[in-house]
Every structure is written in structure tokens, then in C-alpha cells.
Amino acid sequence: MPVNEIPKFITSTRYTTVTIALIVLFSTIFLISYQPFSLAMWFSSSNMIRILFTLLFYVASIVILIVSRVTMYRVQERYVITHSQYVLWLVAEAIIIALLYTFVTYRYFASSNLTIVDIGARALLCVTIILAVPNLTVMFYAAYRTKCEELDAAQYEIKRLSEEYNHLLSEAEVERRVSKMIPKSESQPKSPHMVQFYDNGGTLRLTIDINALYYLESEDNYINVHYKHNDKILSYLLRCKTSTVEKSLEGSTMVRCHRSYIVNTGKIRFMGEEHRMHFVTLDDESIKRIPVSKSYYPSLLASLNTIGMLNKGNKPETSDK
Question: What pLDDT was estimated at residue 166?
């Protein structure tokens, strides 16, 4: 995965909805404040014709943004979107909405003091400000939430290590005997049900029970580990290569299903196909469905069949459209 690929949460439904809502709110406040200083502003709350045009323009702009973000989400599922491409995409949104405003203004509300170039330049400036402020606000908030989730993950790790330490103290005699048989480099106990995650420097950063682990997601040169703690899905951002993590998961229920996803097959509850694209859903409704690429579909299906043979009562449902 390219280092400069944008994080996947930027195009998620949650952040897209919040961003568009903030754009509507901020644009209303901005235009009300800016109206007395603009010769090209025709929005009104008193004239019926202008009220109608105002509402139609707002609806059209929102539709443009929704179509743009849905398209961006679909594109990112199949291709890599870099930071520069993402910025160009946002610039294109601003230009399209500014052109729409310029056309309506010049066609129906043109002032003799302004040319179409003047109107277009003013429109592009206003639209850029209106789109930039909410987008930056949501991105900063998302970064803040990511740090909070990392802190929650660290607290979970501290609690787990404390519980493990207390357990080891209660079995001190057994531990002393085992330590004599294990080389120092391998002296750290490792439960077959625990998955250990190391960063690129070889430092142990996270240890999670396989039953609490849901899926891994590649983001840039990081791995986003998604797991459940206290009935809440959390994530921990780990700087590590996907290939390194994948080797440590060999023999477990964690199976790669996409170039960007490794999923816990024990958590899969449904496998389906839509628009010729396979996907799986996990047993927690707060987790979005995860895409399955054609190259990894056979191996994932084989793993699911194996689980179905071992646990016949817990076999995931499948659906082919």
C-alpha cells in the first residue's frame, strides 16, 4: 500500500454525513454574514422567487456533495486514493458548485456592475471557504478520536498485563521451573489464545485474546487493529508491515480476505455478493461490511468451510446473488 494513501475513515459514511451536515450549517452562517458585503449575493428569506432559488441551489449542492462522496467511497474500495488526489477531488467539488452558482447568478440575478468572471471568482472563493472549514474540522476531530482510541487500547493492554502478572504470581513455582527450560530470548510466556503485535522496531505493542480480535485494516504503512473491549469496538494503530503481522497469524482464525483486510473467520456471520463484489459481515452491527477480493475469496471460503466442519452449529451464512 502506498505510503501517501488517505486513511479509509475519511470516506466512511459516518464522517461523510457529519461533514455534509457541518457544511450546511457553516454555509448558512457564512452566507448570512457575508451577504451585506457582496454584490453577487442573491439569497433571500423574504422574496418568494429568491427563496425558491435558494432552496433549489442548496439541494443541488448537497446532492453534488453526496454523489461525489459516495463515488469517492466506491473508488477507494478498488483503487488507491493519495492525499494529492483527495485534495484535487475536493477542489473539483468546489469548482462544480461555484460554476452552478455562477450560472444561476449570471442567468437570473446578474448585476450590471459585475461580469461573469467577477461572479465566478467570488463564488469560487466563498465555496472554497465553506467547504474547507467543515472538512478540516472533521479531519482534526477524526485525528483526535484516533488518539483517544489508541489511549483506550493502551489502557486495555495495561489492565491485561496486570491481570496476567497477578496470575503468574499465583503460579510462581511453576513459572520458575518453566523458565529454566526456556531460553532467555523466549522467556516471555505466550498463550496460544493470545495474539501479539510487534512494531517495525520489534517492540511488543499489543497483546489481544484471539476471541476479542475482529479484523485488521491496512492504512498507509500502518495496521489498524480492531478488537472488542467492554462491549465496545476499539482500534489500535500499529506501525508495522502487513506481511509481518500475517506471518504471526499463521495457524489462527485470522485470514486475509482483501489486500487491505485480514478478518477473524470466527466472527463472520454472513458472506454475500453485491454488484459482483463479495463481502462479509461480522457479528457486531457497528462494524461495516468488509470487502472480499476475488484473489482471496477461495482461501477465505476454504477457511469458513473448515470452521463449519469443526463447529457445525456456528457456520456463517452465505448468499450469492
Answer: 72
